[in-house]
């Protein structure tokens, strides 16, 4: 989640967009990236659903409770980055 969050914020900063107020809500950052006018992003298919997955389940950033993955999360992370 942190890697995707940093990439999204970097894209926003590169386009002179504010990153204030997103905290760790990457869905908000992703939507702001999509709203950048004059740019067409060629994101991997399924990225939006992966962003939603991270936004829902990525709040365990400091391993406060055990977690595991069951599917294609590592592949999706690779495609997202």
Report low-confidence residues grouped into runs of 5 or more. none
Q: How confident overall, as mean pLDDT? A: 86
How many distinct helices?
4
- Kindly provide the radius of gyration, computed on alpha-carbon positions and rounded to a whole number of angstroms: 13 Å
Number of domains: 1
Structural class: mainly alpha
Strand content: under 5%
Task: Please tell me what the overall shape is.
Answer: globular
Please give the alpha-carbon distance between the first and last residues: 10 Å
Which sequence of SSEs, written as H and E, runs from N to C? HHHH
Query: How many β-strands, per DSSP?
Result: 0
- Helical residues, percent: 40-55%
Main sheet record: none
Explain what you see.
The chain is mostly helical and 81 residues long. The chain has one domain. 51% of the residues lie in helices and 0% in strands. It has four helices and no strands. Helix 1 packs parallel to helix 2. The chain is globular, with a radius of gyration of 13 Å. The protein starts with a helix and ends with a helix.
A few lines on this structure:
The chain is mainly alpha-helical and 81 residues long.
Layout of helices and strands:
Elements: H1 2-14, H2 26-34, H3 47-57, H4 73-80
Task: Name its key features.
single chain, about 80 residues, mainly alpha, about 0% strand
């Amino acid at each position: 989640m942190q890697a995707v969050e940093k990439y999204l914020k970097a894209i926003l900063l590169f386009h002179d967009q504010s990153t204030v107020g997103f905290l760790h809500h990457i869905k908000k950052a992703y939507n702001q990236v999509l709203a950048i006018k004059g740019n067409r992003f060629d994101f991997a298919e399924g990225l939006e659903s992966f962003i939603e997955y991270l936004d829902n389940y990525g709040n365990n950033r400091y391993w406060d409770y055990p977690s595991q993955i069951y599917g294609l999360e590592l592949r999706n992370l690779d495609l997202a980055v």
